[in-house]
Design a protein that fits this description.
Layout lengths: L12 E5 L3 H5 L18 H9 L3 H13 L10 H33 L2 E6 L2 E6 L8 E5 L7 E7 L5 E5 L1 H4 L4 E5 L2 H4 L5 H5 L4 E5 L10 E5 L2 E5 L4 E2 L4 E3 L3 E8 L5 H4 L10 H34 L24 H20 L6 H18 L14 E2 L11 E6 L6 E12 L2 E3 L2 E2 L5 E2 L25 H8 L3 H12 L4 E5 L2 E5 L3 H12 L2 E6 L3 E6 L2 E11 L7 E8 L2 E8 L1 H5 L7 H16 L3 E10 L1 H15 L5 H12 L4 E12 L3 H10 L3 E5 L4 H10 L9 E5 L4 H25 L3 E2 L3 E4 L2 E4 L9 E6 H7 L5 H9 L3 E5 L3 H14 L3 E6 L5 H6 L2 E5 L6 H4 L3 E3 L4 H39 L12 H11 L1 H10 L5 H6 L5 H5 L5 H27 L12 H23 L5 H21 L11 H6 L2 H28 L3 H13 L7 E5 L30 H11 L9 E2 L10 H9 L17 E5 ...
Helix pairs in contact: 2-4, 3-4, 3-10, 4-28, 9-10, 11-27, 11-29, 13-14, 17-18, 19-27, 21-23, 27-29, 27-32, 27-33, 29-34, 32-33, 32-36, 33-34, 33-36, 39-40
Membrane topology: Multi-pass membrane protein
Subcellular location: Endomembrane system; Membrane
Protein name: Phospholipid-transporting ATPase
Length: 1241
C-alpha cells in the first residue's frame, strides 16, 4: 500500500489537446479548486497553537506555567500565569479563526460560482471547482473569468472582447483581447466548438501577468499565442455579450493565484528595540535569581538549619527528617529549587499583558487613522486606510520619503497642450508681433464648430494650429494621422456618443486631440483602422503593431492605404532621434529646441516619425516577424531584433507636449515635511530638464539653494568624478561658512521630553540639491560607489533621480535602508512603484488614476499625496508619542511591582514567599492598572492636530529616537526600582510594630502585602495621571475608577462570604490609621519629586512642545484681556521662481540641459541677500563674557517693538512662533510676560 504520493516533477512546458479530457488528465494538471484558508476543523487547534508558541514570548510563558505546575518550586498558583496565557492565546485564536472563517467563506463563494462548460457536446452549468484544464467555457457579460483561458470566439465584431483587470493589477481602464481569426469563425456554434481539437504548447505556470508565450497547431497551421489572446482568472468581462475560451491554467496554477504570495511581515524599530530590552531584562532576571539562590543557600546553611523544628525541610531534601544527608547538601538542593521559584516570581517584570496591550494600542490607533475625516477624499469617496496595524508608531520616525511623481505628486489627468510641427511651435497664445501671452480665464478657446465629434471639455488656445489643419498643410495632416492611427485605443459608441477606452491617460489624450482637430479615430478591426479626416472616412489596412514596452520606449504600426505602405512611430525623443534619416538633421535641431522649451514648462513630450516601406521589404520582413513571433525560445529578444531592423531611417514629423498638473496641496505638504526634518527623494521616469522643474513646482528645489548638482556621466569613471567633486564642493562651502561666523542657535539644542537633542539646524544658504540620471545611477549603485552616493545624497536637502526604472527605485530605497539607521517610507500609485513600496520600512499607496496596484501592496492607503502630511505629522507623531509613553510607564510600574518581592526576600529567608496575594499578582496588569495606561496610549496628545501640522519641528523627537530608547528605558527602570524601595520599606517600618485600634497585631505578612499592594495601585495610577497630557471625562473615569474599583474589589474579595485565606485582611488594614498615613506619605514621596522636576524644567528649560502647549492653552483661554494671534513664520523662504506645472513623459529622455550651471541661481540668491535684513529673534551672536538677558529686559524689549509686531525668525527649516498682540498699556499680566519670556528663549 502506498501511504504517500510521489512529488510531481517540475513542469517545464504545458501540453493541452482540445476536446480530449483523457489526454489532458494524464498530466495531472491542477483543477480549479482554490484554498486560501489556513485551517480546517481538525487542524485548527494543533496548528494554531503551534504557530502561537513559535513566538518567543508565548513559549517563555508556557515554560513558566510548566514550572508553576511543580508544587516543590512554585510559590504561586498556576492560575497566575494560566489565566493571562489562556486569554492571550484565546484572543489570538479567535482573531485567527475569524480571519480564516472569512477566507473559507470567500473560497466557498468563489469555488461555487457557476459557469457554462462544454461537456459531451452540450453546455452544462458547472461549479468553478469542477472545471479542469482543456474544458471550453462560455462566459457572459459582467461575469468573472473562471480560469486562465485561450480566447476562441466572442459576440463582438472581429472577435474582440473587453475585460476589466482591477483584481489583477488595479487598472480600471478596460483592456482589449482578440481571438485568432481562424478560431473566431467558430462563433457560438456548439457543434463546431465541441469538435475543436487543437494542440497547444505553452509556457509552464508562472506569475508574470504581462507575458504569455505559446503556439497552437490546428488544421495543419501553426499559430502564435501571446498575452493579447489570453483571459486571466479574476478579470471581469465587460461590454461583451458572450465569449468562449479554452482552459489553459486552472486553480493554483492561474496567474492570479501565483501572484497571491504572502505579505512580507514588517517589524517596527520599537519592536526590535523591545526585543533587545527583553533580552536584557531576562539577563537581569537571571542575575537576581542567581543572587537569590546563593543567598538562600547561605541563609539555609547558617540560619535555616536552626529552625527546622518550625520550618521543616521537604522530605526529598537531603538532611531532612526523611532523607539522609548533611546540611550543605540540603541547603544546595533547596537553593537550586529556589532558583526556579524566583524565575516564576520575577517574571512579571515583562508580563504577557505587555504584548496584548501593544497590539490593542496599535489597533486603536489604526482605527483613528481610518476614521479621520480630514483624510477623506470626497471626489472618489476614498478614506485613508491602515492596511496593517503593526507599523503605526513607525510613521512618527520617518526620515526618508521616496516618492513617485506621476499620479502621486500629479493628477495623472492629461491634456494636449502644445506641439511642434514643421519647425513651428504651437500652443502659446501670441500677439500680433508673435510674442507669447499669458493664458487667463478670459483667453478665448479655439472653436471646433465644424467638427461634430469635438469634445466640449477639450481646451486649446492657439488658433494657428487649427488654421494650419484647415489649410491642408501636408506635415500637419501627417502629424495628426499618426496620432489617429498609431495607438491601441478602442472606440465605443455609448449613448450615441463616441468614447475611447485607452490603456494610459496620455495615449487617450493624444487620440482625443487628433479627434478634436478633425482626425477622428472611429473603429478598428484586427486588420483595419477607420478614421474620419475632415468629414471624409478613410480605411487603412493594419498589417502589424510593433507594441510599446519599457525597453523599446516607442510604438509603431505598419499600415497600407491605396497600395502605399507606411510605418508610423511615436516614442521617446532620444529613441526616435537615433533612428532618423540623416536628412532630418535640421528638423531634429529645431524640434530639440522646442522639446527643451516644453520641458521648461513641465510638459510630457513625445516625438512622431514615419517611413515609407517598399513592398519587397515588407514581404521579407513579414516572414522574419512571423518566425520570431512563433518562436518558443527568446521570443521577446527575437521580436526586438526584427522591430529594430525596420524602425530605421525614419522621417521626423513633429513632437507633442501633454500637461499633467500637480495635485492640490503638494507644494505645501512637501515644504512642511521638509521643515520637519524629513528628506524627500523623488524617483521619476522623467527626463532631466523636467525633473528639475518637478522640484521647483513642488518647492523641493528653491532659488535660495546654494547649488543644484547634476550627475549625468555616461561612464563609471565620470560618475565617480562628478560625485567626488560635488561632495568636496559641499564640504568646502560648509567649512567656509563655518569659519566666517560662529553663530549660537539658541533654539538649536532643543530638549524633547526632558532629554537634550542636538538638532541639525544648518545655516541659511547651505542647502544643496542633487539630480542624478538613470544611466548615471546605474554606475552609482555599484558596490564600490554606493557609499559615495549615500554620503553625497545625505549631504543634500533634496534629491531627484530621473529616468529611473522600477528596479532602480527599489535599489535606491534598499541602499538607504542598508547604509543608514533611518526609517524609510515609499509612496506611489502605480504598478511600477510596487517594488519600492515593498522594499521600504513603510509603503503608502495612492488610489489614483493608475489603479489600485500600489494600494494592494501597501501598508497604508491614502487618496492624495497631501494627506501624507497629516498621516505623518499628526497620526504618526501621536502614535509614536503614545507608544513611547506607554512603554516608559509600563516598564516603570512593573519594575515597581516586581522588585518589592526582591526586598521582601531579605526578610523571609529567601524562601520565595510572595509579598502579595497570588490573585493580586494575576490581576495587577489585567484589571487594576490596565485601563488608565490603555487610555493614555490610545487617546493622549501633547498638542492637537492643528499645531502638530503648523509646527512641523514637533516631529523631531521621532527622528532623534528620543521618545523611547535604551537610555529612557534605563531611566524608567531606575525610577521603578526606587519606587519599589519606597513602596516596600515605608509600609514595612510603619507596620512593623503596628497595632490596630482594637488591639490586634498589624505586623503580619498578609497585612503588609495588602498595604503595599494598595499603595502600589494608587501610586502608579496617580503616576499615570501625571503622564497624561490630554484630559477628558473619560480619562478621569479611567484613573479614579481604577483606584475605586481596586478598593471595592479587594474589600469584597477578602470578605467572609468567599472564605478566602485573606479573609478580613482588607477591612483590618483599611480601617487602620497607619495605612492611610502610609498611603499619603508614600505617594507624596514618590510623586512630589516628579512634579518638582517637571515644573522646574517646564518653567526654566521649556521644550518646543511645552511652549506650544502653553500657547495652545492660552489661545483657548477666554479670560485674556488682549487678543492673541499665533502665526508661523514661513518654513521655507518663498522662491522667486514661478511654479511650473506639469511634467515630461515618464519614459522619455530629452536633449539639452535646462540648467547648465548654478550661476543664475547664485546670482538670484545674492540679489535676495542684498535686500533689507530680517531681524532674528532666535539666532544671536553671543559673547561668552556677556551675561544672558534678564526676564524683564526681554519683556521690555518685546514691548518696545514697533506697533507690537513680533519679529519673524527667518531660519530655514526651523519654524518659529511669533506672538502678535494688540497692546494696551493698562493691562500687563504675568502669564503674558511668561509667554514672551519663553518665546525669547
Amino acid at each position: 500500500m502506498q501511504f504517500w504520493k510521489a512529488d510531481k516533477p517540475q513542469e517545464i512546458e504545458r501540453n493541452i489537446k482540445g476536446s480530449d479530457p483523457e489526454y489532458n488528465a494524464k498530466f495531472e494538471y491542477a483543477n480549479n479548486y482554490i484554498c486560501t484558508s489556513k485551517y480546517s476543523a481538525l487542524t485548527f487547534l494543533p496548528k494554531n497553537l503551534l504557530e502561537q508558541f513559535q513566538r518567543i514570548a508565548n513559549f517563555y510563558f508556557l515554560c513558566l506555567l510548566i514550572l508553576q505546575l511543580i508544587p516543590a518550586i512554585s510559590p504561586l498558583t498556576p492560575l497566575t500565569t494560566l489565566i493571562p496565557l489562556v486569554v492571550v492565546l484565546g484572543v489570538t485564536a479567535v482573531k485567527d479563526i475569524a480571519d480564516d472563517f472569512q477566507r473559507h467563506r470567500n473560497d466557498a463563494l468563489v469555488n461555487n460560482r457557476l459557469s457554462y462548460v462544454l461537456r459531451e457536446g452540450k453546455l452544462v452549468e458547472e461549479r468553478w471547482h469542477k472545471v479542469v484544464v482543456g474544458d471550453i467555457i462560455k462566459m457572459e457579460n459582467n461575469q468573472f473569468v473562471a480560469a486562465d483561458l485561450l480566447l476562441l470566439s466572442t459576440s463582438e465584431p472581429h472577435s474582440l472582447c473587453y475585460i476589466e483587470t482591477a483584481e489583477l493589477d488595479g487598472e480600471t481602464n478596460l483592456k482589449v483581447r482578440q481571438a485568432i481569426p481562424e478560431t473566431a469563425e467558430l462563433g457560438d456554434d456548439i457543434h463546431q466548438l465541441s469538435r475543436f481539437d487543437a494542440d497547444i504548447k505553452c509556457e509552464a505556470p508562472n506569475n508574470n501577468l504581462s507575458k504569455y508565450e505559446g503556439t497552437m497547431t490546428w488544421r495543419g497551421q501553426k499559430y502564435s499565442l501571446d498575452n493579447e489572446k489570453i483571459l486571466l482568472r479574476g478579470c471581469i468581462l465587460r461590454n461583451t455579450q458572450w465569449c468562449f475560451g479554452l482552459v489553459i491554467f486552472a486553480g493554483k496554477d492561474t496567474k492570479l493565484m501565483m501572484n497571491s504570495g504572502k505579505t512580507v511581515f514588517k517589524r517596527t524599530h520599537i519592536d526590535r528595540l523591545m526585543n533587545l530590552i527583553i533580552i536584557g531584562i531576562f539577563i537581569l532576571l537571571l542575575v537576581m535569581c542567581i543572587t537569590m539562590t546563593m543567598s538562600c543557600g547561605i541563609w539555609e546553611t547558617l540560619v535555616g538549619t536552626k529552625f527546622t523544628v518550625y520550618l521543616p525541610w521537604e522530605s526529598f531534601v537531603p538532611g531532612s527528617a526523611d532523607k539522609a544527608g548533611n546540611v550543605e547538601e540540603g541547603a544546595t538542593t533547596i537553593s537550586l529549587l529556589i532558583f526556579f521559584s524566583y524565575i516564576i516570581i520575577f517574571n512579571t517584570v515583562v508580563p504577557i499583558s505587555l504584548y496584548v496591550s501593544v497590539e490593542m494600542i496599535r489597533l486603536a490607533n489604526s482605527f483613528l487613522i481610518n476614521w479621520d475625516n480630514k483624510m477623506f477624499y470626497e471626489k472618489t469617496n476614498m478614506p485613508a486606510k491602515a492596511r496593517t496595524t503593526t507599523l503605526n508608531e513607525e510613521l512618527g520616525q520617518i526620515e526618508y520619503i521616496f516618492t513617485d511623481k506621476t499620479g502621486t505628486l500629479t493628477q495623472n489627468i492629461m491634456s494636449f497642450n502644445k506641439c511642434s510641427i514643421d519647425g513651428k511651435s504651437y500652443g502659446d497664445v501670441v500677439d500680433e508681433y508673435g510674442n507669447p501671452m499669458d493664458i487667463t480665464e478670459k483667453t478665448a478657446r479655439v472653436e471646433f464648430t465644424g467638427n461634430q465629434y469635438a469634445e466640449e471639455n477639450f481646451e486649446f488656445f492657439d488658433q494657428r494650429l487649427l488654421d494650419a489643419v484647415q489649410s491642408n498643410k501636408p506635415l500637419v495632416h501627417d502629424f495628426f494621422k499618426i496620432l489617429a492611427l498609431c495607438h491601441t485605443v478602442m472606440p465605443e459608441v455609448k449613448d450615441g456618443g463616441l468614447e475611447y477606452q485607452a490603456q494610459s491617460p496620455d495615449e487617450g489624450a493624444l487620440v482625443s486631440a487628433a479627434r478634436n482637430f478633425g482626425f477622428v479615430f472611429k473603429s478598428r478591426t484586427p486588420t483595419t483602422i477607420t478614421i474620419e479626416v475632415n468629414g471624409k472616412e478613410e480605411v487603412y489596412d493594419l498589417l502589424c503593431i510593433l507594441d510599446f514596452n519599457n525597453v523599446r520606449k516607442r510604438m509603431s504600426v505598419i499600415v497600407r492605404k491605396n497600395g502605399k505602405l507606411q510605418l508610423l512611430c511615436k516614442g521617446a525623443d532620444n529613441v526616435i532621434f537615433e533612428r532618423l534619416d540623416k536628412s532630418c538633421a535640421d528638423a531634429k535641431e529645431i524640434i530639440t529646441h522646442h522639446l527643451n522649451e516644453f520641458a521648461n514648462d513641465g510638459l510630457r513630450t513625445l516625438c512622431l516619425a514615419s517611413k515609407d516601406i517598399p513592398e519587397e521589404l515588407w514581404k521579407s520582413w513579414s516572414a522574419k516577424h512571423h518566425e520570431a513571433s512563433t518562436s518558443m525560445e527568446n521570443r521577446d529578444d527575437k521580436l526586438s531584433e526584427v522591430y529594430e531592423e525596420i524602425e530605421q531611417n525614419m522621417t521626423l514629423i513633429g513632437a507633442t507636449a501633454i500637461e499633467d498638473k500637480l495635485q492640490d496641496g503638494v507644494p505645501e505638504a512637501i515644504a512642511n515635511l521638509a521643515a520637519a526634518g524629513i528628506k524627500i527623494w523623488v524617483l521619476t521616469g522623467d527626463k532631466q530638464e523636467t525633473a528639475i522643474n518637478i522640484g521647483y513646482s513642488c518647492r523641493l528645489l528653491t532659488d535660495e539653494m546654494e547649488d543644484v548638482f547634476i550627475v549625468d556621466g555616461e561612464t563609471e569613471e565620470t560618475v565617480k568624478k562628478q560625485m567626488t567633486d560635488f561632495l568636496k564642493a559641499i564640504k568646502d562651502h560648509k567649512a567656509e561658512r563655518h569659519s566666517e561666523e560662529s553663530v549660537h542657535m539658541q533654539n538649536g539644542g532643543v530638549t524633547f521630553n526632558g532629554s537634550a537633542a542636538e538638532l541639525n539646524v544648518e545655516t541659511p544658504g547651505l542647502d544643496f540639491a542633487l539630480v542624478i540620471n538613470g544611466h548615471s545611477l546605474y554606475h552609482a549603485l555599484r558596490p564600490d560607489q554606493e557609499e559615495l552616493l549615500v554620503e553625497l545624497g545625505c549631504s543634500c536637502k533634496a534629491i531627484i533621480c530621473c529616468r529611473v526604472t522600477p528596479l532602480q527605485k527599489a535599489l535606491v530605497v534598499d541602499l538607504i535602508k542598508k547604509s543608514k539607521t533611518a526609517i524609510t517610507l515609499s509612496i506611489g500609485d502605480g504598478a511600477n512603484d510596487v517594488s519600492m513600496i515593498k522594499t521600504a520600512h513603510i509603503g503608502v499607496g495612492i488610489s489614483g488614476q493608475e489603479g489600485m496596484q500600489a494600494v494592494l501592496a501597501s501598508d497604508y492607503a491614502i487618496a492624495q499625496f497631501r494627506y501624507l502630511e497629516r498621516l505623518l505629522l499628526v497620526h504618526g507623531r501621536w502614535s509614536y508619542f503614545r507608544m513611547c509613553k506607554f512603554l516608559q510607564y509600563f516598564f516603570y510600574k512593573n519594575f515597581a511591582f516586581t522588585l518589592c518581592h526582591l526586598w521582601f526576600a531579605f526578610f523571609c529567608g529567601f524562601s520565595a514567599q510572595t509579598l502579595y496575594d497570588p490573585y493580586f499578582v494575576s490581576f495587577y496588569n489585567v484589571f487594576y492598572t490596565s485601563i488608565p495606561v490603555l487610555i493614555l496610549a490610545c487617546f493622549d496628545q501633547d498638542v492637537n492636530d492643528y499645531y502638530s501640522i503648523r509646527y512641523p519641528k514637533l516631529y523631531t523627537p521621532g527622528l532623534l529616537d528620543s521618545g523611547f530608547n535604551k537610555k529612557v528605558f534605563a531611566f524608567s527602570a531606575g525610577e521603578g526600582i526606587i519606587t519599589s524601595l519606597v513602596l516596600f520599606f515605608i509600609p514595612y517600618f510603619a507596620f512593623q510594630y503596628g497595632v490596630h485600634y482594637d488591639g490586634t497585631d498589624l505586623s503580619d505578612h498578609q497585612s503588609l502585602g495588602c498595604a503595599v499592594a494598595s499603595t502600589l495601585v494608587v501610586a502608579v495610577n496617580l503616576r499615570c495621571a501625571l503622564d497624561m497630557s490630554y484630559w477628558t471625562a473619560f480619562h478621569h473615569v479611567a484613573i479614579w475608577g481604577s483606584i475605586i474599583y481596586y478598593f471595592c474589589f479587594i474589600t469584597a474579595m477578602y470578605a467572609s462570604s468567599f472564605n478566602y485565606t485573606y479573609e478580613g485582611v482588607a477591612y483590618q488594614v483599611f480601617s487602620s490609621a497607619q495605612f492611610w498615613f502610609t498611603l499619603l506619605l508614600t505617594c507624596t514621596i514618590l510623586l512630589l519629586p516628579v512634579i518638582a522636576y517637571r515644573f522646574y524644567y517646564i518653567d526654566v528649560h521649556p521644550t518646543l512642545t511645552e511652549r506650544i502647549r502653553l500657547k495652545q492653552r492660552l489661545t483657548k483661554s477666554k479670560s485674556r484681556s488682549r487678543d492673541l494671534h499665533i502665526r508661523r513664520a514661513s518654513t521655507l523662504r518663498r522662491s522667486t521662481r514661478s511654479l511650473r506645472s506639469g511634467y515630461a513623459f515618464a519614459h522619455q529622455e530629452g536633449f539639452g540641459e535646462l540648467i547648465t550651471s548654478g550661476l543664475n541661481m547664485r546670482q538670484r540668491a545674492e540679489k535676495s541677500e542684498q535686500k533689507s535684513s530680517v531681524e532674528l529673534t532666535k539666532v544671536k551672536k553671543i559673547d561668552n563674557n556677556t551675561p544672558l538677558p534678564s526676564y524683564n529686559d526681554l519683556y521690555k524689549e518685546n514691548n518696545n517693538s514697533s506697533n507690537g509686531a513680533s519679529n519673524v525668525a527667518a531660519q530655514d527649516n526651523h519654524p518659529t512662533v511669533a506672538v502678535v498682540e494688540n497692546h494696551n498699556d493698562s493691562h500687563h499680566h504675568d502669564p503674558d510676560r511668561h509667554v514672551v519670556f519663553c518665546e525669547k528663549l
